[in-house]
């Protein structure tokens, strides 16, 4: 693996990858988060008769495409290379954002959202293959946390820009889609300029595998099967991740609308308040990833404490009687929630799964998590249509977090996590 500098005085290749992938997540999440704050404007532009269930389904169609693309994209990454998967995927993403901007019906928005999900689905496998192959082992955890922080930055800025430009300045909601198209075009150029060709990538990977020949011998007798993939501690980890993502994507999709319709927030305050979750998650992710690396034999405890704490913060958010209490709860949820606990869960999973099947295990793990992104937005919208409030949606997320955490703890309470120095996050 070549981690040398590209040219005298230039950044090392792995550092360029970290920056590029972080910006990639920023771009994806600005698109993902831009529509939720302007659901009322979307409803008005479509004639005013669109239900909350239909609006929540916009996000569900996006994540349906994203989930469907995970396995095919991973297969294509191995066959034709990361660059050849990322660039066509993001071109499709740009076309999809343009289709959403020009849509005259909710059905056309659904089509564009589905296409956007398919395009963005090219990113996950490519991105984390690049980090696994190119980032030095002693820098991998913190570097991956930096990459992941791009999703929080993009989510925060997407909500703020959307609220400011549309809700406060009165611009058409389509402006955010055009901004997304421009950003996607820039990132496609960056992918082309920075990511190595498939030939160079394969040469780098072969060199890495050659250096790890002893490691390959040690794991040659390990097998991956449905029995190992669905062993209790693996299955309950998938369920825990489903619950973690369910709460997060429910918040990402419906928090702006909840603040506006049920808590009296207006204009830019909606986007700013919603973005607190995203921005607070950045220091949380960096802090807890460092702490978990330092105390590697206590990862189960870290996971349980963070998950229960996140559930408590959601409960405080729902029961908040004033804006200060509510905003404090949201900040703490961001600091303790999905982006803080996710790297620790992935690291723990990597230590406990058969190493020869780690890719398959992580694929199943991510599939479970992303399934929640399909269910949560539409279900919460349906609850809102029936009850006139989204509060029950929050309670469902809280209950899922508690149940998932207890199942995970029950499966691991008598099992000590092996002390392994490798970090697969």
Structure description:
This protein has 425 residues and is mainly alpha-helical. It folds into 2 domains: 9-209, Up-down Bundle (Growth Hormone, Chain: A), CATH 1.20.1250; 224-425, Growth Hormone, Chain: A (Up-down Bundle), CATH 1.20.1250.20. The chain is 80% helix and 0% strand. The chain is built from 18 helices and no strands. It has helices at residues 13-34, 39-45, 52-80, 82-102, 106-120, 123-134, 140-168, 175-194, 198-211, 213-219, 226-229, 232-262, 268-294, 299-319, 323-336, 338-352, 358-387, 391-412. Helix 3 (52-80) crosses helix 6 (123-134), helix 3 (52-80) packs antiparallel against helix 17 and helix 7 (140-168) runs antiparallel to helix 13. It is found in: Cell membrane. Its main location: membrane. The chain crosses the membrane at residues 17-34, 54-77, 84-103, 109-130, 142-167, 173-195, 235-255, 267-288, 300-318, 356-379, 391-411.
């Amino acid at each position: 693996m070549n981690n040398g500098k590209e040219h005298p005085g230039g950044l090392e290749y792995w550092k360029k990858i970290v920056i590029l992938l972080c910006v990639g997540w920023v771009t994806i999440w600005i698109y993902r988060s831009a529509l939720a704050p302007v659901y009322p404007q979307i409803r008005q532009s479509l004639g005013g008769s669109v239900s909350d269930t239909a609006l929540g389904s916009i996000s569900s169609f996006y994540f349906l495409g994203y989930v469907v693309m995970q396995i095919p994209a991973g297969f294509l990454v191995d066959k034709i290379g990361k660059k050849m998967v990322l660039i066509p995927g993001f071109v499709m993403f740009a076309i999809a954002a343009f289709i959403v901007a020009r849509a005259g019906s909710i059905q056309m928005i659904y089509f564009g959202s589905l296409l956007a999900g398919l395009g963005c689905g090219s990113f996950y496998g490519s991105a984390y293959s690049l980090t696994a192959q190119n980032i030095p082992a002693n820098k991998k955890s913190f570097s991956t946390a930096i990459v992941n922080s791009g999703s929080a930055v993009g989510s925060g800025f997407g909500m703020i820009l959307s609220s400011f430009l549309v809700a406060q300045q009165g611009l058409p909601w389509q402006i955010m889609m055009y901004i997304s198209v421009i950003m996607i075009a820039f990132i496609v150029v960056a992918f082309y300029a920075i990511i190595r060709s498939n030939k160079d990538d394969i040469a780098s990977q072969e060199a890495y595998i050659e250096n790890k020949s002893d490691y390959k011998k040690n794991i040659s007798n390990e097998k991956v099967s449905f029995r190992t993939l669905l062993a209790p501690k693996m299955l309950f980890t998938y369920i825990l991740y489903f619950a973690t993502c369910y709460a997060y994507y429910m918040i990402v999709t419906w928090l702006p609308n909840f603040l506006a319709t049920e808590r009296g927030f207006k204009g830019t305050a909606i986007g700013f308040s919603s973005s607190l979750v995203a921005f607070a998650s950045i220091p949380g992710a960096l802090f807890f990833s460092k702490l978990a690396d330092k105390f590697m034999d206590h990862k189960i405890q870290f996971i349980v404490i963070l998950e229960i704490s996140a559930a408590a913060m959601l409960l405080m958010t729902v029961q908040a009687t004033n804006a200060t209490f509510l905003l404090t709860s949201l900040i703490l949820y961001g600091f303790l929630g999905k982006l803080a606990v996710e790297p620790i869960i992935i690291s723990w999973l990597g230590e406990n799964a058969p190493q020869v099947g780690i890719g398959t295990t992580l694929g199943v793990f991510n599939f479970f998590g992303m399934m929640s992104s399909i269910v949560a937005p539409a279900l919460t919208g349906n609850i809102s249509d029936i009850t006139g409030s989204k509060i029950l949606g929050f309670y469902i997320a809280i209950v899922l977090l508690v149940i998932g955490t207890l199942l995970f703890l029950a499966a691991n309470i008598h099992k000590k996590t092996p002390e392994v120095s490798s970090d697969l996050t």
